[in-house]
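sorry for the late reply, my laptop died twice this morning and i had to redo everyting from scratch. anyway the thing you sent over, i finally got around to it. pasting the sequence first so we're on the same page, its 337 residues, then the predicted structure underneath. double check i copied it right bc i was rushing
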Amino acid sequence: MELVRAATLTGYFEVAAELRLDTLALLRNAGLARSVVADPDRMIPARQVAHLLEATASAANCPSFAVRMAERRTIADLGMVSLLIAHQPTLCEAFSVMQRYRNRINSTLVLQVDERDGVAVVQEQWALDPPLVSRQADELALGVLAGLGAWLLGKSWQIEEVHSAHCAPPPSDGVIYGRVFGAPMRFDSDFTGLVLSGPLLDFPNPRADPALAAHAKRMAETMMAEAERSLEQEVEEAILLQLPAGGASLASTARALGLRPRTLQRRLEVAGQPFGDTLEAVRRRQAARHLGNPRLTVTEVAELCGYASLSAFTRWHTKAYGTSPQRLRKGPVGIST
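ok and here's the structure:
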């Protein structure tokens, strides 16, 4: 089930009130009730939240709506895991905790951190099937990540660049982006994410307290039932992170999860979800998602889906969908940017 905590909407009503919007009608049209979103720890459908944010931004003619929400967020809005995140020794380990417990924050958001030649890129990957393109969801997540980094590292936090796959907003919104991110914005990019200095990932968190971190971990594991993060979810995430690096195999996925290939295969078969089926499902989601981004060439989409050549990707796509990726791309995908 694609779920997020209701706390994802922290700041929604305040920003909407400033823009004089009828939130009751917007919530109703998105299939949400005010009483449902009032409980921050309640898990609510991710798609309905994304649709609500897009409809609200459109009604207000305010592309920066979600960024304005992010400006109001604090680390406490991440819920029970916030204490554990707050006391991780480095930013990189804080990101890892967010991933480990994403079922209790946002089950649909996968973070990919790549470091190369002294530069780190933190990208968002949405595990939604079918895929959904949402500027507001993308930029809300970016704003939350920026706020988390600033809270953890204080004056040492610095973003080199912010990339958004969406078009540039009106100049009047530039002040908001500058205030939230404090870095150059690169719109119409081929990805959505933050560019950081590589060493920043391992910069010591001055707030970290190992004893409190251990205590928070015990609390989280006791109260949040980490087991609810299923093997299928772990496998999907591992595949998602491996595809851009040249594809995913049973062996490489097993290594990523600390299992033997035969053990992983047996457990997936018992769950009724063979590895090949999972790989195919993830690849289909990623293909549809990336083909919906006109800033990516079909060759680049092929690489992101784990194919070494455009011809191999085209053959797979034609077999899977009965049409080439070039033809399919002409149709609309998801919510428009």
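Residues 135-153 form the longest helix (19 residues).
thats about all i looked at so far, will dig more tmrw
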